[in-house]
Batch of 4 targets.
Target 1
Amino acid sequence: MSDLAPASTAAVQRVTERLSALGHPHAPTMLSDAARTAQQAADTLGVALGQIAKSIIFRRKSDERAVLVVTSGDLRVDEKKVQAIVCAEGGKLGRADADFVKAKTGFSIGGVSPLAHAEEPVTLIDERLFRFDVVWAAAGHPHAVFPLTPDQLQRYTGAPVADVTQAPA
């Protein structure tokens, strides 16, 4: 982790300001290599893949609202479980393309933070993140990350903790 440097871009600054307002003790830092995938982030940080709190965005079709699922990097989101939680009876969840993600969150894919979104998403937190004392989340840029505990993540987002992943293979 010697390749960490202070972070600076408009999106990262937004995350930095939100973390500061929440009293979070760690500002985002920039990695020397991109962390567009959970595996890249884990390798660069020298942590377990599951410690990467990846932010997955879906599109709720009924109202075009962004649905953010923050999940462990070593697991896959079960879209049907998420749909059952966030959609009314018969409602559907759809994939979010890069333009939708950028418009709704203010972040590009690969750098979606779990907080400081352009429009507040419907958010769910994967219960399996709580296996770890510390997780690492994107901070608005593919090179920017910050550490936090799963409890802090839940407190900062106000999101419910749920079973939102597929059973491990």
Target 2
Amino acid sequence: MSSTPANPRLPRMIDVRKFAQQGIHLAGDVPVSGMERLAAESLNSDQATVAAVLEFGVDEERHRLIRGTADCSVQVTCQRCLEPVEVALHADINLAIVWDEEKAKQLVKSLDPLIVGEGPADLYAIIEDELLLELPIASYHDHDCIAQTSFGEEVEDTGAKSSNPFQVLEQLKGSPKS
């Protein structure tokens, strides 16, 4: 029984303009531990790996492009029970490489600008930006989980509606509501 070899690790620093001119295709992994903002922002563990597939090229309007996908499964904190929950992230990457803000404003709406100066660009940061945009605002388990109260007591989250808090006053008044 042969094991499937791991995807190669993508290079961190690349010349995105040269890659676009040459029509380079990259497929490989990026460690989440190499994405400091993503790992520090919201993840419980930086042991995940991002699988990325990127196509560099030039379109009919002579825009240098990066197109592809980035997928990973990360562990974040459930906002109900404060326990770890697995979240799948999928980013569709559709970037046009530009020199400055002026060129970015001239792009069609279907392309997001990637402003890059001279020299190499950080590929991990490019992928990380796209994944940060895909993180949910709040993460929850798919199933009911135990919610923690502010006093540390566990409360079963059943989704059932609680009784009317004014029901006691209604009984004291002695006249049931019609």
Target 3
Amino acid sequence: MNRQEQAFQAAAASADTPAVLTARPSRAKRAIASTLIASCTLMALPMHAGAQVVPTDALVPSTSAATTAGTAADSRVRVNAFFARDDVRQAMVKEGVDAAAAQARVDAMSDDEIRALDGRIAQAPAGGEVLGLIFTVFVILLITDILGFTKVFPFTRSIR
């Protein structure tokens, strides 16, 4: 060994040298570092994904008009009962639609049109979109409060 190597070893062994330079990493740190190295290496490997065309019938359950709405006569009876209700007649009058004219148009519909109308009536929400309406009004009032046009909510602070 030459003098420089001896001086380096002596400096490393002396108490003046910080422990960080001479201490080895703990087993936990080595295990974590090894795991990170392995996972980062594996992330670089290509992943294979399979894709195929999925037919609509596989995603949407088949609902033929005959199974959901019954026969055309059943659908016609349900639609006529719907138009015979007082609240429906009042809503039509309120909108300016003659109830007798609407009933005449319903009677002139084909079987497919009656089934489609019966399906739409059956899927219509009973109380309407009340929660959606309330949420929309809340958001509009909140935005106008923040912009400083109104002062409805005490927890908002105007940007003006």
Target 4
Amino acid sequence: MNTKSFNPMAGREGDRVGNGWASPRPRARPTGRAVSGWKVIKKHAPDKPGALKLATQWGDALVCVRHRLDESGQTRVTTVELVVEQAPVRARGAQVVGVQISYAEKDLQAAARAAGATWDAAARLWRMPEKVARALRLADRIRDGK
């Protein structure tokens, strides 16, 4: 992917008709007002009518095209959603913690064992992912004994 910053308005001063994206009628320029709160009236996938012209301009980076109306209903804007970066997601390993469960709490030990916990005899703690400890409401019993 190109690492240079992208300015969609760059070079649009003398738009010529017939270059694939300009039209013969003058277009309204963005006002600088935030349009995120405007009501979405239409949403098009890149391969659907209403987005094909923009799909030729933006290519595979185009995710969708939205038409929005301002609060007064007098102004419509067309927005595009683009992919600007793609990276693999690395899953974090579940952090294993030691949880103190007393010998007399047989039901709690059984619940921990059913959730995949194992007994660490050297540390005298039950080992389980922190997520499991929180789901069993044992967060207050987490100990450091590694």
